[in-house]
Known about the structure:
The structure holds two protein chains of two kinds. By secondary structure, chain A is α/β, with parallel strands linked by helices. Chain A has two domains: 3-229, 3-Layer(aba) Sandwich (Rossmann fold); 247-287, no CATH class. Chain A has twelve helices and ten strands. In chain A, the strands form two sheets. In chain A, strands 6-7-8-3-9-10 form a six-stranded mixed β-sheet, sandwiched between helices. A four-stranded antiparallel β-sheet of chain A has the order 2-1-4-5, with helices on one face. In chain A, helix 4 crosses helix 6. Chain B is flat, with a radius of gyration of 23 Å. Chain B contains eleven helices and two strands; from the N terminus they run αααααββαααααα. Chain B starts with 15 loop residues before the first helix and ends with a helix. In chain B, 21% of the residues are buried. In chain B, helix 2 packs across helix 7 (132-143), helix 5 (74-87) packs antiparallel against helix 6 (103-129) and helix 8 packs across helix 10 (201-224). Chain A binds chain B through residues 13, 15-17, 51, 54, 56, 79, 82-83, 86-87, 89, 92, 94-97, 107-108, 111-112, 143, 157-158, 161, and chain B through 3, 11-12, 64-65, 176-177, 179-187, 201-202, 205-206, 209-210.
Amino acid sequence: MMIKIENLNFIYNPDSPFETKALNNINLEINEGDFIGLLGHTGSGKSTLIQHLNGLIKPTSGSIIVDGVDITEKGADLKSIRQKVGLVFQYPEYQLFEETVYKDIAFGPKNLGLDDSEIDSRVKKAMELVGLDFDSLKDRSPFELSGGQKRRVAIAGVLAMEPKVLILDEPTAGLDPRGRDEILGEIKDLYNKGNITIILVSHSMEDVARLVNKIVVMHKGEIAMEGTPREVFRRAEELESMGLGIPQVTYFMRKYKESGNDVSSDVLTIDEAKEELLRYLRRNGND
Amino acid sequence: MIKDITIGQYFPGETVIHKLDPRVKILVSFAFIISLFFINKFYPYILILAYILTVTKLSGVPIKYVLKGLKPLTFIILITFFINLFMTKGVVLFEIGPLVITEEGLYQSLFMALRLIFLIMGTSILTLTTSPISLTDGIEKILSPLKAIGLPAHELAMMMTIALRFIPTLLEETDKIMKAQMARGADFESGNIMSRAKNLVPLLVPLFINAFRRADELAMAMEARCYRGGEHRTRLNEIKMEKRDYIAITIMVIFFGVLVLTRYI
Ligand SMILES: Nc1ncnc2c1ncn2[C@@H]1O[C@H](COP(=O)(O)OP(=O)(O)O)[C@@H](O)[C@H]1O
Ligand SMILES: [Mg+2]
């Protein structure tokens, strides 16, 4: 399944004093099996862009082709598109509404018209994917759970629709470091199980660097960069001018290299940095 | 979708109309509404139209924007129109089945519909050119003499300020929750009345829960900054009558005087 965005423009509140051009001539291809990090400063248009991908927002101009179907056309089957392209909003815990965790997660599958046994198995599977214990939590009220658990329930609610493309808008916003790592870990596991395309929206380079295989950087409503994490992080100065950074260890390695040490600064994670430093120190020690 | 509502929406600007004392604008709007009800024939409507157009022109608000305020109330205007059209007795103009249209009915329905339209447009200009903050400041000032008889003017104004402040937030949030539920396959647009009402549950529950949470946080934040009501509270920007306000009052008194006079000539 492939998504192709062509010449997409979007304006909020057109012809009013509050007119905002949120997206400016976006062209982007998302291929099956991609794990994309969509990065950009607050207000760069990330959320606006992803809401186009399942037809929640109609573009001012341009086209979005999902699985060969132009979803901007009149009469497009939005229900099936929203099943294929699952979207988890920012702070999704604020949309929980059911009496029990089970019912809330079942809301999506129910809207798809599935039968009860299918719904049951999907709820179980979705809860397992996000690390929630089915038996002890299914009958609890979602409102009495902790913040991190609520968010998992909300994510499970989208996973239960078994989308082929999963889009998560800043899924770690407002979580403590531990909660953040757990959620990111679960997203990674989900991707590794295969058969899914993921778009992870974030403004944190650290989060994204070690997970995704492609980065798209947005700036002021346009796509400013596109490439593998390594390619993108080589352009640290540009990123900084857009109010973004590079991962701290990459930054450290760059500085270390600048101060006259012959190391590669092309590292993304602490493990890679460790390897590189050990390699460098050993070689130096042997001289 | 929900954002079409103009009543209560401020159109920022620096014009004379924007700068008028909010008290003057509120009182003029009231006088405007009352004088509308004094009008008993068609031709004074020309004056009203001229008034609305002049003020709109002076305020720099595009007329389109003033007209937008009518959109959410189209239904009410139409109902008024048709009820008057079919229910007024008099000289029959023509009949379509059981429906009878009379000369008086036609006259009356047009008259009432125009009255409503002008009423909405006239008051839209007030809210379009006055920021919510100065609007409530004005109301507080106007009501403050009534404190003597126990009316909590400050508290009322504060409640209004808060309510106005949160309207955009609530609209935004409604939009967001609707979209989030639509992403899970919820349908807010089709079905009969019963199923539509039922479909609103996934929207209304989170909306209320979030509103209560917000109210709680706001109360706490206000308390943390030692808010304790109107007594001895001073303000940074006192509203003051200026020359332009006196000029506006003079013009308006003459204008409304003329309008009332048309009743008798
Ligand atoms: N509902 C809305 N109404 C009007 N303007 C909006 C709305 N949502 C976003 N915007 C504006 O569109 C631009 C892009 O916002 P958004 O897509 O939310 O960016 P991001 O998710 O990257 O922070 C911003 O300038 C923002 O103010
Ligand atoms: Mg966003």
